[in-house]
Amino acid sequence: MASPTLICETEQWKDLMAHVEDIKKTHLRELMSDTKRCQSMMVEFDGMLLDYSRQRATLNTLNKLSNLAEAAHLKEKIDRMFSGERINSTENRSVLHIALRAPRGSVINSDGKNVVPDVWQVLDKIKDFSDSVRSGAWVGATGKALKDVIAIGIGGSFLGPLFVHTALQTDPEAAEFARGRKLHFLANVDPIDVARNIAGLNPETTLVVVVSKTFTTAETMLNARSLREWISAALGPQAVVKHMVAVSTNLTLVEKFGIDPEHAFAFWDWVGGRYSVCSAVGVLPLSLQYGFEVVERFLKGASSIDQHFHSTPFEKNLPVVLGLLSVWNASFLGYPARAILPYTQALEKFAPHIQQVSMESNGKGVSIDGVPLPYEAGEIDFGEPGTNGQHSFYQLIHQGRVIPCDFIGVVKSQQPVYLKGELVSNHDELMSNFFAQPDALAYGKTPEQLLKENVPNHLVTHKTFSGNRPSLSLLLPSLSAYNIGQLLAIYEHRIAVEGFVWGINSFDQWGVELGKSLATQVRKQLHASRKKGQPIDGFNFSTTTLLTRYLEASSKDVPNEDCTILPNM
Question: Would you name the residues annotated as active-site residues?
Answer without folding.
Answer: 360, 391, 516
